[in-house]
Amino acid sequence: MNCPGLARNRSRTGRFESLLDALLTAEEDECIEVTRDCWTCGWHEACQVRLESIKMSEGDEINDDLAAVDSLTTLEAVRAEIRRQ
């Protein structure tokens, strides 16, 4: 049954958080429990998601490049050049 009212998601730690945040902070082989409750009609739904593997594809290159920068001056010069372009 679909709820006719507004529902809120509760996941992982029991706090209200977005499902995206719960997925991005999860560990491999972790089970995330998501519940939806409507405070208007009392409707309730629960679902469990288990992450079998995590593959990060974007952002790793930037982090690797940033870790390789050993000088704050170099980093500031690169940032200034990017803003100029």
Automatic annotation (TrEMBL):
InterPro entries: DUF8105 (IPR058418). Pfam families: DUF8105. This is Uncharacterized protein. It comes from Natrinema hispanicum.
